[in-house]
Design goal:
homodimer, about 400 residues, Lyase, Ornithine Decarboxylase, Chain A, domain 1, TIM Barrel, 2 domains, eight-stranded mixed β-sheet, eight-stranded parallel barrel, 16 strands, about 30% helix, about 20% strand
């Protein structure tokens, strides 16, 4: 067994990822490239369908807006969560029907709301009076769901308070939406990015259920619960398999909200992360001082060319090299730009072969989500992360 | 005096920035746009020339690679510090001569070194054995300067240890370069981004001078000191005017390194920051709870569409609105994306008019550096920061 194969076995890869590995092995890349396997996207969608049952699945386009991903998912009957006019146009151009695209950003330009309304989009997110006013003016009568703030859970990347209103404001905002002639159909929340186990949803669901039942009791006709994203990818720490995870989440949801409520989910990372790997290259290996225990390893991909989620060392990617059987030692990993914040892992160094050197290929696993779309237009003159779809 | 004019007076703007203000006032922007005034770039270059005397000025292209900026600076006789093959190609295509372009990234792809060598680039940065080996192989006989790590100073954004070698390694690396047939001509360092006063250079210069004189004493023929960047922009805290700042820095340099040494500087921010302002728009103003003291203000530009340097709230931009005379109050400022880390200022809120609302224009000052180039290719479906050059 080669070092790469042994590592694959460790992370539980199966035959479907062999296609991705084979494509990478067969290709000479001129620059860092995200290789994306549509069959893995299909498999993930089907696992989510089985797990989530009758919930509607709106893929969070921002996770990876590659047109081929949108097209494949539209073909499979997936719905979409769009953050902007640009994402709505993308979905519609790739075959999605407008009634299957929700405009899920709570911060929308008025002219983009008007565009969406003209394009046939019927469902909008909101969390504030002024947003409801904009929707009522530019998409009169539209369906809206209200985003709630929930208290942080154990997610790897808990969210800030940027989105949502305090639960105490929900009733007032729903009443305001009704007064504005909007159809206030439900509530939404986000459990936090990369919530690794279904059981970690319980506290959040309890918070939302308390608001939900209070609002129902106040006479509001809620029909939709949007449970957002949070579906995790494998990044070294144990995660539940997607289907079982989704089923367990739905069990927790149904126990609190009953069977009559329409459930909507917005997986992004869970849909595409493990469908992609980045083929990168080592540019330099060095030591800063003769007595340094760790080396610095510089890759041709960094925080400004695709690996933005290493900010604060939040998401820990897995690295594979052809030398993985050799003796290894701790490395600080950094990107290629002349920017001192373009360091990937320093507080918790990464163990890599001591034989590693400039020119070696590095494969970075589970990079299908939040990489190519975060890439800069060309910081330091490096082109954006290339994408190759298989 | 209008609120905008009064604010301009406060920050000491003069007639040359009126042209920028007039251009913004006369334009309807469909999306966030960086408006860049080439006359201010020229003025800054000339101030740097006067202050830096006979030093050669290599503009750090990464700060703003707008082709018109490169073209204007090449016309004025400025030299360039390029971080990549892409930036070298840009400079050469805009009229720079190859002997005036240094390849200043210490992390270079071997094929890019070969490209640069073929294109006539003669000067390369390095900080490690493997980098010297790559240069010797692909640009035989080239001039190299060695980047040193210096200890952090009082810069607003001190650098990490990503670049440079420990001073104790300098002699060994210079000897290695010589053995490889390279022309080891000098040393470089970086004092830290946004070093607001010339006097803050003293400690760093002392550190570098100690290494410099030790290496000279060991028989190495150093002829070049590259003092890097660090030239500051105005972001609310007091900074010295550019010409006086540069002159004071040169006095500190000459006192330690003598008059015979060739000095090279790499201003980026100092050259272009105040030449640009972003015309942005308020998308939403809200409160999360009825008893919140602060509001949330969401702009159509954020961390992923140009304002990357607000990471950690490091760089504090100045905001102007047409309502600046009205009563004001604390705001958390955030970008438009569905990303919870896309928050600009939260720990230290920004004071903005209480009358501010969706649709209002916001002008963000001194945004000419490190904005458009950091912008993502289209995160959340938002196009990259637009650039309008006047």
């Amino acid at each position: 067994m080669t070092a790469l194969a042994s590592d694959r076995a460790l992370r539980g890869a199966d035959s479907i990822t062999d296609r991705l590995d084979a494509a990478i092995a067969a290709t000479t890349f001129e620059r860092p490239t995200l290789v994306l396997d549509l069959d893995i996207v299909s498999r993930n969608f089907q696992a989510l369908q089985r797990g989530l049952g009758d919930a509607s699945i709106h893929y969070a386009v921002k996770a990876n807006p590659a047109p081929q991903v949108i097209e494949r998912l539209a073909m499979l009957g997936c719905h979409f969560d769009a953050a902007s006019r640009g994402e709505i146009e993308l979905c519609l151009s790739m075959g999605a029907r407008p009634e299957h695209v929700s405009f899920g950003n709570t911060i929308k330009r008025a002219t983009d709301i008007a565009f969406a309304h003209r394009a046939g989009i019927t469902m909008f997110a909101a969390d504030a009076e002024e947003e409801l006013e904009k929707i009522a003016e530019h998409a009169p009568g539209a369906q809206v769901y209200l985003r709630l703030i929930v208290e942080p859970t154990g997610a790897d990347w808990p969210l800030t308070r940027k989105f949502g209103c305090a639960p105490a404001r929900a009733e007032g905002l729903l009443a305001y939406a009704r007064d504005l002639g909007l159809d206030a159909i439900g509530l939404s929340f986000h459990v936090g990015s990369q919530t690794r186990h279904a059981r970690m949803w319980s506290d959040t669901l309890n918070q939302v259920a308390a608001t939900w039942h209070a609002v129902l009791a106040a006479g509001f006709d809620l029909r939709l619960l949007n449970i957002g994203g949070g579906f995790p990818a494998f990044h070294g720490d144990d995660v539940d398999p997607l289907e079982a995870y989704s089923r367990d989440v739905m069990d927790l949801v149904r126990a609190r909200f009953g069977d009559a409520v329409q459930i909507m989910a917005e997986p992004g990372r869970g849909m595409v992360a493990d469908a992609g790997a980045i083929a990168a290259e080592v540019l330099l290996v060095s030591r800063k001082s003769d007595d340094d225990l760790h080396r610095w390893v510089y890759l041709d991909v960094g925080r400004f060319s695709g690996l933005a989620e290493t900010e604060g060392e939040a998401i820990r990617y897995q690295f594979e090299t052809a030398r993985d059987g050799d003796e290894s030692g701790p490395c600080i990993l950094a990107g290629p730009s002349c920017d001192s914040v373009d360091v990937l892992y320093e507080k918790r160094p990464v163990s890599l072969p001591v034989s590693l050197r400039a020119g070696d290929r590095v494969v970075i696993r589970n990079c299908g989500a939040y990489t190519s779309s975060y890439s800069s237009v060309g910081f330091n003159g490096f082109p954006p992360l290339d994408v190759m779809v298989i």
